[in-house]
Amino acid sequence: MASNSGFTMTLPTLDSKNYEIWHIQMKVLFDYQEVLEIVQNGYQSVGEDATEAQRSTFRECKKRDCKTLFMIHQCVDESNFEKISSAKTTKEAWDNLEKCYAGAEKVNKVNLQTLRREYELLQMKDGDAITYYFTKIGSLTNLMKGCGEVMRDQLVVEKVFRTLNPKFDHVVVAIEESKDLEVFKSEELQSSLEAHEQRIKERNSDRNFDLALQAQSSRRSFGQGNFQKKFKVKWKTDKGRNYEGARFKVVHGNGPEIEARLDQGEEFEEERVLLMATSEDEVKDDCWYLDTCCSNHMSGHKDWFERLDENGKSRVKFADHSSINTEGVGDISIRRKDGKSASIKNVLYVQKMKNNMLSLGQLLEKWYEMTMADKLLNVYDCDKNLILRVPLSKNRTFKIRIQVNNHKCLMSKATHEN
User: Fold this and answer.
1) How many domains would you assign to the chain?
2) How far is CA 377 from CA 17, 307, 370, in A?
3) What range defines the domain where residue 230 resides?
């Protein structure tokens, strides 16, 4: 539509969902065309005894009314056109649309109550941008004004203060202390918050860039050259004798490898660990995963069991609700780093299981204690002796290599005579 000023306007179109917005836009358009009074109040017809001046005024009003009615016809879709097709004047067509959508007072009250509730429950979410949140508040505010609600700008400002993300709390305090909230506009508040939001984004991007450079530099320095770390351990046996030795040397080169050897006559600075830690380059058959969600120790290596009760069969249920049968329960003999033997009790034998599992819950039942700190899982026995130290692997799991003693499995199976 071309206006008298020479620029082209796109007319809004009424459908079944946008009456409130269309109503506001059309009122502005009618006011611009200087026909809003005819739309709201109509015009008076003249009688046969009217003067020439009255007849001239009537013809002019009727001409403007027809022009406005044609404009309304252009601004509705086909379904709404059927509602006003029989209207003879602009006021009649306008009133018909108001009655269909928002003319009834009861409908306005119900709509206003719904909008008020939605407005009060509106909160800024963590991922919302300031522009997006102010757009949502502005849309609800305009809809409430269209239903007759009086919305002062100060109420909108207070609403924003109450529902902003906590990261803007210090900005809110600064504004409340420095500004007169009685004359403070929501547009000023939006611009201040957007400036602070942009500053936060810039700082976060700079920090992420610095972290990326630091990580890249760390990877390079770790992969170049060889360096050695030596850890010393000092321990006391159950009989009270002091032993010194067990130096651990970790050599980093093209690939990490861990080796242990026994020495004597040297002092040690760290606690003795009875089981061997594993490297992270690959998963071996003798690797065990320590898991809090696993309810029982489990292994799929039947030849590891020094004793296996095949009568203790059960079913194991996994997180995906699948299940598998266990073929028995028994003990696995292992060799500690001091050469002594120990046993892992009550291990379920799961024939098709590829990974070995150590249940932290089952260890807790045996009065073991666990601590997790500095990317290390430490396990202590009931005498507070450190028996296991496992580093966090690259895939955020705890796995350890345990040497199993060579032996023949002794199976027990109950038989019943007829």
Assistant:
1) 4
2) 59, 29, 7
3) 226-272
